[in-house]
Design goal:
Blueprint (H helix, E strand, L loop, with lengths): L1 H9 L4 H4 L7 H15 L3 H12 L37 H17 L38 H12 L14
Length: 173
């Protein structure tokens, strides 16, 4: 798949970390991204791009530890706050971390109800439907003025064959 191919060009997959959490390869990781995104109607390319942007292509290095299976910095609000952890789910930890990310994106992008049980600990803190495009995530998911949505869009452009400019900038399908 295009996501896994791009990842392989950018980094090496930390299988030593994620084998025990249910994603032994980047292919497994991407399959989970697609399944979880599709389950809630969020665009898989947005979920993947955000996870890669937030983690430095799964290299981490910020306030989140790879073992937390938190691929979107949920709860890492600065000043050393370590953020939410999803590693308590054992073999489903990668899936639950991705699910929380998908649910958080859906909270911003839509007022539709969740289709799966809530795992995002910050879901209720979001103004529902307040960021339907990638650019509207700037200042909501991330600090204002850093071009957050455009950064995600540039990653998407690397693996989705689309005309420039990308005309479908929506988070939710």
């Amino acid at each position: 798949n295009e996501m896994a191919d791009l990842f392989d060009q950018m980094s090496s997959y930390p299988s030593d970390v994620y084998l025990k959490y249910g994603a032994s390869s980047i292919d497994d990781f991407c399959k989970i991204v697609v399944e979880e995104a599709n389950a809630e109607g969020v665009k898989a390319e947005v979920v993947f791009a955000q996870a890669m942007y937030e983690t430095g292509w799964l290299g981490f290095g910020g306030d989140i530890d790879p073992e937390q299976c938190n691929f979107a910095g949920i709860g890492a609000v600065g000043n050393g706050a370590s953020g939410a952890s999803f590693n308590q789910y054992g073999k489903d930890s990668v899936r639950m971390g991705i699910r929380a990310q998908v649910q958080h994106l859906k909270a911003y992008a839509s007022t539709e109800p969740l289709r799966q049980p809530l795992v995002d600990p910050r879901f209720d803190l979001v103004e529902r439907g307040s960021a339907v495009t990638l650019q509207q995530l700037d200042g909501r998911w991330a600090v204002p003025g850093n071009g957050y949505g455009d950064n995600l869009l540039s990653i998407i452009h690397n693996f989705v064959r689309v005309s420039i400019p990308y005309t479908n900038r929506y988070v939710y399908s």
